[in-house]
Specification:
By secondary structure, this protein is an all-alpha fold. The chain contains 20 helices and no strands. The protein has one domain: Growth Hormone, Chain: A, CATH 1.20.1250. Its main location: membrane.
């Protein structure tokens, strides 16, 4: 995965004071994330309508979401490999077309199998956009602000759907799901296409000019080197455990609300508040982690997430508590997309950041299948309590894993002859 040299900058690219500004690049990355947010976070609104439109079971419809999550997450290592090595402009331009065409086609197709294909196409495009945006967040910013930068980028993905959910709800009520898919698909594809034309990798710094960067002083782990560390596998399991619960809320907000007798207007409100809380949590916890420490922040947030999930079967039938608990779950869940990229860069370096984080992110594919398709099957057979109690336990275990990671010595670069001093992993 690391035979070609990763790209730092292209001498043919034009930078200048605007395009070459790290905040410009951060905003462009955020725009791309906002435009793919619907693909994941607005999906729950479409589920009942698609059940009726295709005369299909909930599990059959949710399989489409599982396929999307699988390709969007399992495609990350491949996307990261190319993002690390080639111009993000070309790759994100192609991805814009895939997202726009895929999401638009979901309003046109006439069979479930075609829906699966269209959603999968959008998922592959989203993988490249997500990988490119996250890479921008960790590459353009110094380690001291990396948590905040990652938080802002991931917050755009977490809360971006809030801009569209009210429109989608109205379109679903007045015109049907086809119009909602087609209109938002065209808008998203065009805006991502435009943003992609301005995306750049950071330019190389003049030799001997700047103060040594922390990233230059640490070993830059290749993907194979990363695989040989205990740190990666512990992080992977933590990612898998915490991501699953949030996938339940992402995919099942409307189905659970309908089963619980929550009014339709409250369900739409909850879906909107969820995306805002999701995005706010990424910024809040990402910023906190720059001061408190990555793993201390993970333990606190993941534990609170588990508590909120455990309370849903008891209190979630109240409209007010339905909105509050689901928002709290998302507020203490979304930060994983800010903290894990920062942890990846802190431990393994930024040189192969997109590829390495892509493999971490692939855990979301398993979590997405469990949180959507498997959760729907369990809920149909045994009710919602086992779904939320299992998710709560997994979140708490992920938090405890962060405390273990905190005590681990730093991973030792292979073939360096260095002796591990026992210093714990950076926080």
């Amino acid at each position: 995965m690391t035979t070609a040299a990763p790209q730092t900058s292209d001498p043919k690219e034009i930078y200048g004071p605007f395009i070459g500004n790290k905040w410009t690049q951060l905003i462009l990355a955020m725009v791309g994330m906002i435009m793919i947010a619907n693909l994941q976070y607005a999906w729950t609104l479409f589920v009942p309508e698609l059940e009726k439109g295709f005369n299909a079971s909930r599990a059959a419809v949710q399989l489409a979401f599982s396929l999307f999550i699988a390709l969007e997450s399992w495609g990350q290592p491949i996307a990261g490999y190319f993002i690390d090595r080639y111009s993000p402009r070309l790759l994100l331009t192609i991805a814009a077309l895939m997202v726009g065409i895929g999401w638009t086609a979901m309003g046109i197709v006439k069979s479930l199998s075609a829906l699966y294909v269209a959603y999968s196409l959008a998922g592959i495009g989203a993988a490249f956009i997500y990988s490119g945006a996250v890479a921008a967040g960790v590459r353009w910013f110094e380690p001291a602000r990396r948590g905040l930068a990652s938080g802002l980028v991931s917050a755009a993905f977490g809360s971006g759907a809030a801009l569209f959910i009210p429109f989608i709800a109205i379109a679903l009520r007045n015109q049907g799901y086809a119009s909602a898919f087609v209109t938002t698909g065209i808008i998203q594809g065009i805006i991502i296409f435009v943003a992609a034309q301005l995306m750049r990798v950071p330019p190389k710094k003049p030799a001997g000019g700047a103060k040594a960067d922390t990233d230059k002083e640490q070993h830059q782990f290749t993907t194979l080197e990363m695989f040989r560390t205990l740190h990666f596998w512990l992080i992977y399991v933590m990612f898998l455990f915490i991501v699953t619960g949030g996938m339940v809320v992402t995919a099942q907000t409307k189905p659970f609300g309908q089963d619980a007798g929550i009014p339709a207007g409250i369900i739409v409100l909850a879906a909107t508040v969820n995306t805002v809380a999701n995005g706010a949590g990424r910024i809040f916890w990402g910023s906190v982690s720059d001061k408190l420490g990555r793993y201390q922040t993970m333990f606190l947030a993941f534990t609170l997430n588990g508590v909120a999930m455990a309370l849903v079967p008891f209190l979630g039938h109240s409209p007010a508590m339905f909105v509050f608990l689901f928002a709290m779950i998302m507020f203490t869940w979304g930060e994983l997309y800010a903290l894990f990229p920062a942890v990846n860069a802190d431990i393994f370096g930024t040189k192969y950041a997109a590829t390495n984080y892509g493999f971490m992110y692939s855990a979301k594919g398993v979590g997405g299948i469990v949180g959507s398709y498997v959760a729907a099957l369990i809920a149909q057979m045994n009710g919602w309590s086992p779904v939320f109690f299992t998710g709560a336990a997994m979140s708490v275990l992920a938090g405890l894993g962060a405390l273990v990671l905190l005590r681990l010595p730093r991973p030792v670069p292979p073939n360096t002859g260095k002796i591990n001093t026992g210093a714990s992993t950076p926080v």
